[in-house]
Amino acid sequence: MISIRDLRKSFTAQQGRVDALRGINLEVGEGEFCVLLGPSGCGKTTTLRCVAGLERPDGGEIEIGGRMVNSPGQQVYVPTEKREIGMVFQSYAIWPHMSVFQNVAFPLTQGQKHFSKSVVVDKVRSALKRVQLDDLEQRPATDLSGGQQQRVAMARAMVTDSKVLLMDEPLSNLDARLREQMRVELKKITKSIGVTTLYVTHDQAEALSLGDKVCVMNLGEILQIAPPQDIYARPVNLFVAQFVGEMNFVQGKVAGAGRVELPFGLLSTVLPNGLQAGAPVTLAIRPEHVTVASASAQAAPLRGKITSKNYLGDAALLEVDVNGVTLLAKLAGDSDLAIGQEAAVELPAHRWHVFP
């Protein structure tokens, strides 16, 4: 549905030329929810704006639904209003002097296509029903909560029955609890209507919970494209491991024969190809894979001391000092381990990620 090939875009800033996109390649299938994830300045919003036609790329090609909409090489540029896409932005862009109904109807009454009054009414009511606002169609936009305004923006983007929906951090202005609720609603809505969605965020939890496919970006490049489970469980490089979720990092060096020398001993693990003995490596392990128990309760090859405990309700985050290395462990919230207590620590070898 969306095909991006070798997309390049640069800007001129005070410090000189900035390469915002350095040859982006991405395929988003029909009905797929694809998330662009990365820090500020990584190029994710520029990618979205190029797909929307709000930015003209310097090179590469963009197709939407098999139709070429951007190709500097072929001198093709289709304006935004002719791309048959829906857009939802970080700012809701709701017309304050209009009612909910009038806001959602705007693309139908002021757009390229003209619809009869009865068709407009049917389409608006159907869109409002999808976002559970069908009982508020006559309410002034200024009387809506933040979550309701965002749902109006979503209804307006979907009312034209566009096959592609582009969303740029649409939930970032909501409070934490409402943001979680809207994630659930957003996924249900997009799946129910089968729309292809390209979604931009810097929020890891948002990306992992929403995306069928997640693209981790940095410095104008896509570093990894994979289902969210693979992004979390199998990061391809150190940046992805650092950016997505909590992670412990330990510096070591290759000892040869599939072993790594760490501050707390030798570890046998699978090493990346081409690493010679003595080569420095970074090992990473998720906090939930670090097992911590009372030192008197069981025997373990490693001993440590609990230096901090952060209670989160359903979980507890513990910092454990092991031979001068601080490891973060995620345990059940009812763990009775306390600060200052000696602990037995287990680090399963198959849970480590090794990066050059």
Q: Can you characterise this structure?
A:
- With 356 residues, the chain is of the alpha+beta class.
- The chain has two domains: 2-242, 3-Layer(aba) Sandwich (Rossmann fold), CATH 3.40.50.300; 249-355, OB fold (Dihydrolipoamide Acetyltransferase, E2P) (Beta Barrel), CATH 2.40.50.140.
- It has eight helices and 21 strands.
- It has helices at 44-52, 100-110, 117-130, 146-158, 176-193, 204-210, 228-233, 238-243, and strands at residues 2-13, 16-28, 33-37, 59-64, 67-71, 76-77, 85-88, 164-168, 196-201, 213-218, 221-226, 248-256, 259-262, 265-268, 280-285, 291-294, 302-311, 315-322, 325-332, 342-346, 353-355.
- Helix 2 packs across helix 3 (117-130), helix 2 runs parallel beside helix 4 and helix 3 (117-130) crosses helix 4 (146-158).
- The model has no long low-confidence stretch (mean pLDDT 91).
Q: Low-confidence spans: pLDDT under 50, at least 5 residues?
A: none
Taken together, the total number of domains comes to 2
User: What is the gyration radius calculated from CA atoms?
Assistant: 25 Å
CATH superfamily of the largest domain: P-loop containing nucleotide triphosphate hydrolases
**What proportion strand?**
35-45%
